[in-house]
Amino acid sequence: MRITLKIATSLDGRIGTSTGESQWITGPEARLQGHRLRAEHDAVLVGVETVLADDPRLTVRLPDGEQGRDPLRIVLDSKLRTPPFARLSKPGTLILTTRSVIPVGEAEVLRVTGDSNNRPALQAVLDTLVSRGVSSLMIEGGGRVAACFVAAGVVDAIEWFRAPILLGGDGRPGVAALSLARLAHAPRYRRLAAEPLGDDLWERYERV
What we know:
Layout: E1 2-9, E2 14-16, H1 28-39, E3 43-47, H2 48-54, E4 72-76, E5 93-97, E6 108-111, H3 122-131, E7 136-141, H4 143-151, E8 157-162, E9 172-173, E10 189-197, E11 200-207
Parallel strand pairs: 1-7, 1-8, 3-4, 3-7, 4-5, 5-6
Antiparallel strand pairs: 2-9, 8-11, 10-11
């Protein structure tokens, strides 16, 4: 499975303010490219904190004349906090949890093995997606989910949309703590391209 991390941040790598406000950091051109990337993947994945903060749809919305299919939407939700009225509590969404299954709207809920923190274990998540025929996955949030996949060394590519604003150290990071003791341990990526999109910058990276 090819895994891509898509992030939209401020210049200093923040996905939201200290209060969690995040819509919209980037402009319409960057958001449109994000929809095109969505259409290229079999599945997109977020953590429940993103669901609670933004109530995203994670569907593909393109201008007239452009074709795109909706990917499978994945939510990592160990305690099943996704509200039954959320936009993702619909058919086409798979919620992965570590607790006993209860209905969440019309979404499919599946219990998977937990890690040491009783969150869905990364390997269990990947195994589940492979069993569903997913060959390309895009991670769309939040920072803790991004850090989990990056730290595991499974992120093959990064699509980074950077807006010309600063949110400061109390803003919410695009990638949460990796607990690195040495620079030599830092995950490394090679930049493939950098392209302006309106006022924003779209940077593309692949794993070294």
